[in-house]
Specification:
By secondary structure, the protein is an alpha+beta fold. It is built from 11 helices and 11 strands. It has 3 domains: 117 residues, no CATH class; 126 residues, no CATH class; 63 residues, Maltose phosphorylase, domain 3 (Sandwich).
Length: 339
Amino acid sequence: IFYAIWHYIKLTGDTEFLYKEGIELLVQMSRCMASWGGWSPRTGEFGFYGVMGPDEFHMFVNNNCYTNTLGKKMFEYTVATLEEMQKKEPKRYQDVVKKTKLDATEPKEWAKMAAKMRILKDKKTGLYEQHDGYFDLPHIDIEHLPLSLIPIYKNWPYIKIFRYDMLKQPDLLNLMYFFSNDYTAKEKLANYEFYEARTIHESSMSPALHSVLAAEVGKLEDAYSFLAYASRLDLDNYNRNTDQGLHATASSGVWAGVISGFGGLRTDMEPLSFAPQIPKKWKSYKFRLFYRGSRIQVSVNKTNATFEVISGDAVDVTIFGKRRTVTSDGITVKLKADK
């Protein structure tokens, strides 16, 4: 919910929502998460204990990287929003304080929790550890698991699944998509290669997210394979559960695989950022986005990408790291050579 609020404000600039409904939600969520966390008597760090991250194959773990990072960012965003309101909208700030019965000590405590949040990272390799002790788990070669075991959660008891470093679906890799600007290209590559090799993809959300990151780190063949996997997941019954219904996450994931994967769209920074590429098997592709009242069309072929506003005002974007202004006249840029 925090990410949805943060991302919505990032894309729309809707401070009216943020200063009214948004901040009330943030205050209550920060209170909730603060009550669920705890301080390590050994390291003095703050973290969340006995949790399950997005992976779902490791339950009741301590300091899941995804959970701790989202908690840290939520505390920081809540405190920053309160400080912003206090300066820009003092009356509305006081209304929030009164309505939520906010004590002056609470934001200070949240800021302290954020500053001391335990985020596990091997500085030498650039690898983030999924949770306390993950790097010590026995390894299992998922490439040689027989097809008859798929889906594995129906054939193995969870007490057996929990023993290994096998993942059901992406966990901390989600962070490198949601908050792309926080991580270096080297960190993304290292973590993609490490965690993808341990992911069994028993989830409809898994192949699409991996397609997006594979495209970013220069593994275009992997990106294309994962995109095809997501698009055919239900049609070909890859996970042997299509009889239970279609996976909406796979369908929406295909869109993300094209737009955020090959289109290179990132929305966690200002302005919108693009780094388009094209798979070898495609001749061209095209997509449209609606952003702050303007409709943008992006057309990509084997050599170029063209950006144009087809309705609304001109829009500032970043293309291959360079700031550009897109108008109805359009601009065309050359694609970068394959990595």
